[in-house]
Amino acid sequence: MALLFASPDDDPVAWSASLRRRLPDLEVRVFPDIGDPAEIDCALVWLPPPGLLAGLPNLRAIFSLGAGVDRLLEDPTLPPDVPLCRMVDSSLTASMAEFVLLHVLRYHRDLDVYEAQQRRAEWRLLLPKPAAATVVGLMGLGELGTASARLLVRHGFTVRGWSRTRKAIEGVRSFAGPAQLTAFLEGVSVLVCLLPLTSETRGILNTTLFARLPEGARLVNLGRGAHLVEEDLLAALDSGRLAHATLDVFAREPLPKEHPFWRHPKITVTPHAAAYCQPESAAELVVENVRRLRAGRPLLHLVDRARGY
Q1: How far apart are CA 139 and CA 156, in angstroms?
Q2: What is the C-alpha to C-alpha distance for residues 239 and 235, in angstroms, rounded to an integer?
Q3: Of 9, 56, 47, the residue nearest 29 (C-alpha)
Q4: Which of 29, 207, 212, 296 has the fewest beta carbons under 10 Å from its own?
Q5: 3-class SS at 95?
Q6: Residue 304 and residue 134: Cα distance in Å, rounded?
């Protein structure tokens, strides 16, 4: 069986070694060295070139290196009948949770305010407040959101979550569906978006939503760039409705050099860096799915294409 690895970001050498160590007879080919496309049985990918997967006539499964598969689903040439599996891995989950905690702590301790004061050479102490005084709202309570919520609870924050269906997570107040979105947003001082990108969530971070948050709330978008209406964010920051935003995902990536987000004093930009899986742990899932593919058994973490995740 031959597997094609294609990613502009992940380390092909480390991935190939981890896969072969667990499944020595698996042939790993690294894009662009495909060889005969008809010999490829499965593909392990992150942001593959559009049309690449459609050119593999005997492809039997697609394994995503990321938890989100929206970019794959946006490829109109994506083979419609080939099973698509998302990545669920402890290293991916842990890195996202720590990234969420990092930025919640940053806002909880007013580091964005101190950075602004530094630019003005202003010395002014803001007395720390207890963690419970900071209300964190997590949009999206899937694998990543649930792990992030639990970590925030352990650090003493007041945590609430909003998702398509109600979830039971100890220490987290759960809200579900459009009818409860307004109630969820009330009192949230740091809003974290970890939603999957679907037709229902596209553009959800907009003026209407920002108006439902307390004045001076902060935003952390780690979902997808298309969740955010960029002009609405800039207006909310300039008016003081929002105090600051941390953005890791963007409608266009890499973020164009001329984009106003780079230079806005109330925005922190990171280059889609929040969470990546480590081959040493994530290869276990890939190998298990290869074995299942060989045996004709159901694959793990299949994506519902109609739902988008």
Answers
A1: 19
A2: 6
A3: 56
A4: 296
A5: helix
A6: 35
User: What ranges in the chain are assigned the alpha helix state H?
Assistant: 12-22, 70-73, 90-108, 111-119, 143-154, 181-185, 207-212, 230-239, 279-295
**264 annotated active-site:** no
Catalytic one of 160, 224, 227, 241: 224
* Other beta carbons less than 10 A from residue 126's beta carbon: 11
Return the CATH number of the domain spanning residue range 90-269: 3.40.50.720
Residue 59 corresponds to which tokens in the numbers above? 């492809």
pLDDT tens digits, one per residue of 119-174: 999 999 999 999 999 999 999 999 999 999 999 999 999 999 999 999 999 999 99
Per-residue model confidence (pLDDT) at position 106: 98
What per-residue confidence (pLDDT) applies to 208? 98
Alpha-carbon dihedral angle through residues 12, 13, 18, 19, given to the nearest 10 degrees: 60
Q: What residue spans in the chain does CATH classification 3.40.50.720 cover?
A: 2-89+277-295, 90-269
Domain 2-89+277-295 -> CATH class: alpha beta
Tokens of 72: 């794959």
Catalytic residue chosen out of the listed positions 86, 106, 227, 272: 272
Average pLDDT over residues 178-186: 98
Q: Quick check: helix, strand or coil at residue 4?
A: strand
Active site residue 224: yes
Question: Using CB atoms within 10 A of its CB, is residue 173 exposed (0-12), middle (13-18) or buried (19+)?
Answer: middle
